[in-house]
Amino acid sequence: MNHKSILLGTLAYTLVTFPLAVIWHVVLFEEKYHSFGYFEGEPNFVLGLLTIIIQGYVMSFLYPYVKFKGQGVIRGLKYSLLIGVFFWSSHVLAFVAKQVVDSSWSFVLMETFYLLIQFGIYGLLIGKIYAMAPENNASQKVQ
Q1: Phi, psi (5° rounding) for residue 68?
Q2: Cα–chain center distance at 93
Q3: Lesser CB count within 10 Å: N end or C end of the chain?
Q4: What is the tens place of the pLDDT at every residue in 27-43?
């Protein structure tokens, strides 16, 4: 287990996701998300940051155990696509299923685009982080 890669992956996910989430949901499209019923009151940024750190850690920890063909960023993008679809179904579709959302198609499209950006960048980064890990480079030279 490469603790440095897990830490770097967690950091990468956090540094991508937290600012993107704040800019997307609270700065650029705040009124739209209020109209969707996405927020009730003010968001709790500390709890949101903690949630993102936990997600980043779990995803970065699991990355070496999920075997996809390819190396580096290609493998990272495949992994993030899998994780992104899971998040999309549990976050976007579940939100629309649990409550009445004005313009539900608009919400689904906006969140889909947001998650494509988030997990696309994370996939590139996690693939690069693990490709640069010393234990991965040593095993690739043997093959």
Answers
A1: -120, 150
A2: 16
A3: C
A4: 999 999 998 888 887 88
Provide the b/e sequence for 49-79 (b: ≥16 CB within 10 Å).
eeebbebbbebbeebbeeeeeeeebebbbbb
Q: Are 43 and 90 in contact (CB under 8 A)?
A: no
Ranges assigned E (strand) in 1-143: none
- How far apart are the C-alpha atoms of 34 and 108, rounded to whole Å? 15
- Residue ranges of domains in the chain: 3-142
3-state secondary structure of 111: helix
With contact defined as beta carbons under 8 Å apart, do 32 and 110 qualify? yes
Cβ(126)–Cβ(59) under 8 Å? Answer: yes
Q: Where is pLDDT greater, at 17 or 134?
A: 17
